[in-house]
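Minutes, project check-in
Item: structure for the 108-residue chain
Input as provided by the requester:
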Amino acid sequence: MRSIALLALLVMGGCTPAQWTRQDASAGQLERDLKECRDSAFWEAQGRPFGFQHVGPMVVQDSTGRRFVVYPAGPFADPYGDRFVEESRLAHSCMRNRGYQLAPAPKG
């Protein structure tokens, strides 16, 4: 029973909305910094060389002929291959470098 309660607590904690905060930043400054970081992350992710482009999910067949989708993994797969994930990672890094932290959003 305790494990179910712990699992429920972890799942609920993952649904908590978060916002960027910095003690000395106004709402306008936060919006400007967030826009600059997102724009910078977008252009940096767009500039990736074509040799390292994301290899998407592939449809393969098993020995009985059934089709299923697999995502390439292994030493030659790019862990940052998804451009949207890369943009998000770069934007988060930029905001942290500017002194912001993600904190739970106030309720209400």
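Outcome recorded: The radius of gyration is 20 Å.
No further action items on this chain.
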